[in-house]
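User: Predict structure, ligand zinc ion.
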Amino acid sequence: MAPTPTPSRSDALLVFQPVKRRNCAECRRGPLPLLVLEEGKPWCLECADLGHLVFLPRGDTALTRRAREASGLSAVVVRFNRRRGRYERQGVLVEEAALALAEERCLADAEARRRRRARDARRRAEEDARFAEAFAAEIRRLFPGCPAERARAIAGHASVRGSGRVGRSAAGRALSPEAVTAAVRASVRHLETPYDQLLMDGVARPEARRRIAGRVEAVLREWSLREAA
Ligand SMILES: [Zn+2]
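Assistant: Predicted complex:
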């Protein structure tokens, strides 16, 4: 049997998983788990010169394609599905070295993908850090009285990726004074005023905001005037 290439599925060598118990027409061994039909008779893989091939079950498309490409001799394993009335692919038989090579290539691909994902994550983290740094610098420019630590915390909070917070909005990206001030104001509202407690006490939000507005503006004014201690 010549190791002919198998350019398409239709002219691939076929190996059958028999539904019935069959013995090899040549060596009489059996029942055969896999057989080849030659002149209408079942042959075992050894007698059909396919005994050195290994079975690769269907399921991993890339691995199957690569293993068949690397294999000088390969066969498609099918089994008859009585209910559906048709033969169905179970996998392929390929040379062991070809399968090993295909597995290595697939692993290398997976590793390459993993490394690329890690690189992307690192780049995003660096972008986030740069953005937060610029944001903090802008806070300190507009509010020199805002402690550095606090500016970093506000900037970090505002620039968390994908959070939809002000730092990721178009204005925040551009570090507009409005966006930066809005982030600082929000922080002051929660930390320098009883805003959260008012909400917890059941005060309506507009009313709570009204009550603390003076305090918020006082802190902003103070931070915008003097250098931080
Ligand atoms: Zn045989």
